[in-house]
Design a protein that fits this description.
- Two copies of one chain form a homodimer.
- Chain A is an alpha+beta fold.
- Chain A folds into two domains: 96 residues, Glutaredoxin (3-Layer(aba) Sandwich), CATH 3.40.30; 106 residues, Up-down Bundle (Glutathione S-transferase Yfyf (Class Pi), Chain A, domain 2), CATH 1.20.1050.10.
- Chain A has nine helices and four strands, in the order βαβααββαααααα.
- Chain A has a four-stranded mixed β-sheet with strand order 2-1-3-4.
- In chain A, β3 and β4 form a beta hairpin.
- Chain A is globular, with a radius of gyration of 17 Å.
- The relative contact order of chain A is 0.16.
- Chains A and B meet through β4, α4, α5 and α6 of A and β4, α4, α5 and α6 of B.
Chain lengths: 217, 217
Amino acid sequence: MAPTITAFERSPDRGKGLARDMRVRWAFEEAGQPYDVRLVSFEQMRAPAYRALHPFGQIPTFEEGGLTLFESGSIVLHIAERHPGLLPDDANARARAISWIFAALDTVEPPIVDRSMATIVERDKPWYEARLPMLDDRVRKRLGQLSTRLGDTDWLDGAFSAGDLMMVTVLRRLNGSGLLEEHPNLAAYVARGEARPAFKRAFEAQLVVFTGGPSSV
Amino acid sequence: MAPTITAFERSPDRGKGLARDMRVRWAFEEAGQPYDVRLVSFEQMRAPAYRALHPFGQIPTFEEGGLTLFESGSIVLHIAERHPGLLPDDANARARAISWIFAALDTVEPPIVDRSMATIVERDKPWYEARLPMLDDRVRKRLGQLSTRLGDTDWLDGAFSAGDLMMVTVLRRLNGSGLLEEHPNLAAYVARGEARPAFKRAFEAQLVVFTGGPSSV
């Protein structure tokens, strides 16, 4: 039986693939592994039954046999460790690719999420306009450092890995901000990720949830 | 030769063990593994030589033989995977413990860091007083969910693991805020972590950097 993940019944991003199930869908597609999706409402995510799966009431979760996991980073790593295609064979290169998963989630994503959250929940606050440039600059600092490291290479450390998968999904959250476009090599890096057949399949699968087409994966 | 990590030459927390090298020191101590520390100044962290080790110019880094890693989550996981004492043997329990590493860093830590950063860099801003309750509430939301999950157990999922190590270090960053104390089971959980002999050894080792005692580890 294929593993089951959870995703938003109604994604706040209206099918742009910015929710965190996208990372896991993409990882399954890169690994060539089938998966099932159970859609959950915001009400269901607050219920004790869901909290038993995910203590923080978020998506995605991962269930396979007797194992339940949460946190997109953990689920992507789990898939990457068990199937070829997402981590190098060499032990050192593998550890470095895992460093990039953590860097994407712990160093690059927080200022990006902060900025998006502010544009949603603090837009009407009197301080919004004054704070936004500061939030932009925090994002810019990380993008500048990442751009320097990436240079003119295709991926962060040799061949495409789960580290790139995670970083691309994190950078995609800047969609519409104009910040990514300040670094042409990063914009090209994201486009390179989005051009992968596995990304496209994952993107279509999450889009169908929003457009209401056939819902089987 | 023992691996070498980097840590602040002058830690902004003045020896409270809140910087991210503490996690890695603690992991080494739990695993009973020796390590060396190279102290770096803020100026050194901005230099190209350091950026070659850590693209985002932070501490800690990890170097062993030809391998360089960065991001405290990645380094702790690397140590935990290679030495007994930090991850369960059972494959499913192991994957769940890794979920907790990610939960600590990606779900619990961001609102805690946001709050501490605001108390430092936005204290003089006109909106500081008005925003602080909102930042407190974001932290409270995660603490409430974590407290519910922990219940009256000692650790998050069975025996002490790298997931607990990471969560305890994340919660310790609330030091002085009064927020942790709103959940006696979480305060006790952190105290339980701090009472471990390995924690104490790691704490002393980082304290010595600040107090200027013997600097060998």
